[in-house]
Fold each of these.
Amino acid sequence: MSKRRGGVVWSSGPEAQQRCERCGRSPCVCPPAVYPLPEKQTARLGRSRKGRGGKTVVTIEGLVLDEAGLMALARTVRRRCGAGGTVKDGVIEIQGDIRDRVAETLRALGYRVKLIGG
Ligand SMILES: [Zn+2]
């Protein structure tokens, strides 16, 4: 007995990969984000030496973004800088001693940037 039902085949094409991380839908059905505009925000860029073998990370804080917004921004910065990174306790951490590059990237995105610490 054959069980043919419909002709719809769900595949993992490019569309599936673009599914929104917040709502899980493609196209996204999230309400518009309510973050202040980048040019109204100041990113505070610090440099921190973590325990892991003294590796330096660039920290980005002071932004008015929720977790999803921070994740999205971290992803953009990672891609543009070709570096690894993560979001921890509301702070974006980008791996490497590349604060100038991160600052440049944020400015290109429209954010104001302030360097803090060493
Ligand atoms: Zn969405």
Note: Residues 34-115 form a domain with the Translation Initiation Factor Eif1 fold (CATH 3.30.780.10).
Amino acid sequence: MSNITGILGREELKKHFNEALVNGKVSHAYIFSGEPGTGKKTVAKSFAQILLCEGVESHVEKGDAVVEKIHACGRCESCKMAMEKKHPDIIFIEKETGKKSISVEDIREKLINDVAVKPYKGPYKVYIIKEAQDLSIEAQSAMLKTMEEPPEYAVIILLVNTDSLLLPTIRSRCETIEIPILSDEIVNEYLKAEYGQKEGIKADDIRFATVFSEGKIGRGMVALTNPDFKLLKHDVIRLVTGIYDMDYNDMVAAVRKTKDYNDILIDYFFELMSIWYRDVLMFKSTRDANDLMYKEEISEISKQAQVISYEGLDLITKAVEKAKERLRANVSFEVAMEMLLMAIQENMNL
Ligand SMILES: [Zn+2]
């Protein structure tokens, strides 16, 4: 993934980083804040690569850097290492699998002790802390001193979904940068450039992933490349197309199956259902299959458009939302799903 696509469509951000570089005002600590999937990690990686690129470095030293033109060359040794995720001066810190938080031990070992060692080759040492909202309070306290008096070469980037759980003392030492969501056009352009040539990925897949992304590249990438997502989509299609003939036992079986999904997949599951009924509604009102997300299921969509009234579609869409709410309110998954499936059946005039 090249640095240019990484900050693609985020002109303001690019300008901001470039100015910091040219004027020698790179902060020692940043918070990159944004919803899950907005590309915080991609932006951080691109920024780290630019900071360490030997091409950029020599331009800045000579004073001939032009603010708009700064980008990592992608050819120097440093860029190559960064792109292969092997740069010794770009350090990723994340919570261990199965753990709920990033522990104070992790922070001591990977940040506090490590930062005392000079960079291996570049002018900076960049620490990227993923899911930094999960830093334990002890870990945050332990970091304070490093954040207060960082070595000249240290750049610490905290990626957070929401910064509310970070200590105010940490926040006040960081420059906070909001990572915005992107337009459909830019996401589409990006996904096309990155995955358009890959085997097994069709233009329709990219279109689906673009709409599903809602401006968050990470979500688009999941929709396009994650095998679990493909299975999930398949399960949703099987459920919404099979719902006519389901009796109580079939429903329980379907519910059991979906219960194995993790939290993110469950959210996606409901979203994929909503998209299905949005397609049915769209086809019912326009009779045009071109813009449907589940275009390949047109015969089934057309059939449902006949047996579900506008009012029924409205009630079904609300029932999907309600199921999501129920889960958030800790209603058991089985109960929430059974109520949803029954609501859908009730609104099909068979
Ligand atoms: Zn370079």
Note: The longest strand covers residues 154-160.
